[in-house]
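thoughts on my protein:
***
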Amino acid sequence: MLIRLSLANLWARKRRLVGLSLAVLLGTAFLSGALVLADTLSSSIGGLIRDSGAGTDVVVRNATAVTDRPGSQRGGIDAALVDRVRAVPGVAAAEPVIQGYGQVVGKDGKALTGNGPRTAGNWVPDPALTPYRLATGRAPAKPDEVVIDRATAKQGHLAPGDRVTVLTPGPVPVTIVGVATFGDEDAFGGGSYTAFDLEGARQHVQRDPGKVGTIAVRAVAGTDQKELAARIQRALPADTQALPGKAATGEAVDAVEDGFLKVFRTFLTVFAVIALVVAAFSINHTFSVVAAQRTREVALMRALGASRGQVLRQALIEALLIGVVASAAGLAAGLGLAAGLRELFASIGFTLPARGLVFKAATALTVLPVGILVTAFAALVPALRGSRVAPVTALRGAGAEQVRLPRRRLVAGLALLAAGLGMGIVGGGMVGLAVAAPAVLAGVLLVAPAGIRAAGGPLTALLPRLRGAPGALARGNLLRSPRRTAGAATAMLLGIAIVTVFAVFAASFKEGSGAETRKVVAGQLVIGGSSPAGWAGGGHSPELTRRTAQIPGVEAVSGLRNATSLVDGQSRQMLAVDSARLDRLFNLDVTRGRVTALGPAGMAVSESAAKDRGWVLGSTTEVTFPDGARQRFTVTGLYDRTAIVGDYLIDRTAWESHADAALDAATVLRLAPGVATGTVKAEVQRIAKDYGAPTVRDKEGFVAARAKMLQTLVAVVYVLLALALLIALGGIANTLSLAAHERTRELGLLRAIGAARAQVRSALRWESTLVAVIGAATGLVVGLFLGWVAIRAIGGPNAGAALPFAVPSTQLAVLVVVGALGGLLAGARPAARAARLPVLRSISAE
């Protein structure tokens, strides 16, 4: 009986049903889209990795792993092991595999970039041991011949027979003799691949011709992978490992899952949760308005014998039905949203290697319960309040909403607000932020109706003078029901507050990072240091660094080389530099000891890293390099500023013999006093053309380039948060629509005494705009405060200095204006519909 009554009630009020369903749909669609896109990436990347190792039964590699980052290279192994492996019983074929850095230079002299690693290696002749297939041309047969992937060929408009340069990282003139695909794909994700013959790869890619990267093994049919790996292992030295092909593939897949995909999934889920929270508040307020409007209806049900429990169950059944239908629709809409998110990332130069869309049962098992539960919990309090209506209310013309504001609510709100403000101002760290944020938000929401009643009058006093009768009507409606006004503005308040916190943090981080980079970099010019594509890593040849050092007017030069190694058994990102000139190129704010002339066994460490490890000057630590070599280093200096250089510095001479690739991530140049920066920059750019034309910037240009990468990410964040604001505006529109329906008789009387349709429309539009402005302004103030607390909590020692509190005034002003315009648009349709109501029917409405 209750189910039939609930269905009839929902069907009789289709407009209310649509409004409630839309908020649930948008929130669940974001969650569904996030999960679908993450699953698609996981399936696509995992599929590519599995394809790459499908025919390899055993992988022979260096036993030392200094990092578990996807795509990272281990040290090389003795090339003589290839013949030893081939002699093991059960081995059908064994091919040496060399892989390192390689980037094709286009016909315009600029390096062709992508969104993944740029690799080079040797062409593997056994098709079972490589995923690459020739699409056109032939395999390389000479050291100066190469095969390139089809994606790179398309990007550079290249074809077999073209003469180009490949950076490995030094420039190598080559002839393209073939174009290959990675299985059915043009390339492996967004990366690029250049294949020499084995001799060419030894000369140009592998620094030590006596080594290879790995050995790919194909087993005799019927041979078990684990058994064959064990046989091969017995023929290998202790520093070399034989791993079954399936285990190697699984290891690579797990590295991606635990690294990039985990971060990406969390990133999208955070915004999905934000959208659901805003949707929950919008749903809660709409149900509150509905419960208030159904006061007399519920009272009649009680008078006819319905119990409180039955009334409560009916309201919850309606909420559950809405939750089920809207969540199912949101689940389906998530597919379209996932495709949209994929295009969004592609538009900023971050093309995701996603093939099709993957929809898993786990997505439905997550989205549907979450959407239903969020809807049910959002409707619970209004349903409880509605079930308490007394039967005698049916005999009175009870208003839709009680105007009286409970004193207990005000007292509790003020107490929470005071506690949150106090904790935010006095407290510190993440604990202070964790307490202050919910306390302030809860306090503001509880005192909002009283605040609207107290401050709304003075703030809107001029509206009747400016807009006449429509302005007076809008002001009166706003102040007459402060709880409804506050409820309608809640979703907007939350949305604007969240956006403001993100905007403040981004501006503060940008300003702090830029200021710290300016302090740290003492040179006037920087080569490289950020990828032209914004995402893919890269570097340039040390030859370029050495040649720029010979330019007249250059006082000091150092290349920065990534030297990831194990420090006391833990993976750490170190930087290898020319420490003899370090003090002239960087201002590291040395606190103790020295950071120059580190030599082959000295290490400089940041104060924060030394504190974490319990090190002091003279402490020693064991470093394990990628090739498996171990060496003890002594801490010779401590410094505070870590921007650009990180936490661990060693000399290039200590790293040189252990690195498989000579690649400078960036080069910093300091000029002699009085030398014109522009003159030297032009000469550096001329030389850089021989090395793929890496970007050459002055210090301010380098700071701006780093900030641009952050701005791109912030732009994506704004787009994702826009959905929360869209949900908030939908809540305002829904509330205004319900309010207009409630005031049908009132609007009819206004029309009867001479009010024009335009005046009615204007009044309702102004009401919607005022609600949006109140929500946006309050959210702005709350967001600024919480942003300030967050900066204090998480800024701390950031690159050697606390983060500054920066307010992006222009962006926030635009945000408020957009909120106001959004409120105006949200109210346009309900206002137009209310103005079209026939006068006589409106007057006769109850």
User: Anything to note?
Assistant: The longest helix spans residues 245-293.
